[in-house]
Amino acid sequence: MNRRGLNLGGPMLKRGSSFGGIALCLLWHTMHLIVSVWYFVLGLITSVESFLICRGLFKRYRDLDVSKVKYLAIVIDNDEAFQTPNVLGLLRWLAAIGVKNICLYDAKGVLKNRKHVLESWLKSESLSDGNIDDTMDEQKMHLEFVSYSDGKLAIAKAANHLTKLYFDAHTEKKKLTEPDLTDALKAIGYEKPDPDLMLVYGPARCNMGFPAWRIQYTEIVHMGPLKYMKFGALIKAIHRFTSVRQNYGK
Question: Alpha-carbon distance 176 to 162, whole Å?
Fold first, then answer.
């Protein structure tokens, strides 16, 4: 009797396990479908809104004040950084809007390696009067190129500077603070402007390794993949930033 009961229990357990697996699989596909439909509808709404903004049908976007965007960071996914035509198109839009100071970042330094292409475009478009330098003249578009290795090198040099300054045999050891790191970065020549606004192009909703000490008070906006970039979405992101009071941590 016991053996027969055990023999009957085996198939029933397997059948229950099979039904459970099918139910979980069905639930997963249902959730995936709901999320996919949600993002499709959201993308459709964004596309329509971008089209209407470009047509000037929203009055609040017509007069865009970019004076608050003193320094703009553009973070691009490694794979999408190879899309040079799209990057140039984005720069054209920013030039048309009136943004002058831009930091271009991708982790692997693809944009930095193509710096000459972008600078040649700036010259051909007469956006820099045939000259690109480190000054921030109102009539010029200034481009800064940053990669993940720049941040690593800066931190390594700053750490070496702090070690020599505070941790040698003849100096009283102290507890390091954030201002100490900032002063060390300035001392080794890595004093760069902090972006007011960061626009992230790519699938990931993160800063992709952008130097953390430069974005303490930066507003970060995810813009989606670069190949799907929209002029209206760019205007909306900048307008939203300029229309909100920035407290910068105070």
Answer: 9
**Contacts by 170-176, CB closer than 8 A, 24 or more apart:** none
Place of tokens 């049908």: 57
Helix (H) or strand (E) holding 35: helix 2-54
H-state helical runs in 125-177 = 148-166
CA pair distance 208, 24, nearest whole angstrom = 34
Q: What is the CA radius of gyration of the chain?
A: 26
Question: In whole angstroms, how far apart are CA 26 and each of 19, 117, 119?
Answer: 10, 50, 53
Which tokens is 62 given? 């017509």
- Write down the pTM of the prediction: 0.72
Tell me, what amino acid is at 82?
A: F
Per-residue model confidence as pLDDT tens digits over 112-141:
999 988 888 877 765 444 444 444 344 578
* Dist. CA 163–CA 240, nearest whole Å: 43
Q: How far is CA 101 from CA 69, 169, 196, 197, 228, in A?
A: 8, 44, 11, 11, 23
- Alpha helices by DSSP H, listed for the chain, are 2-54, 84-97, 110-113, 115-124, 148-166, 178-187, 231-242
- Compute the distance between CA of residue 194 and CA of residue 103 in angstroms, rounded to an integer: 10
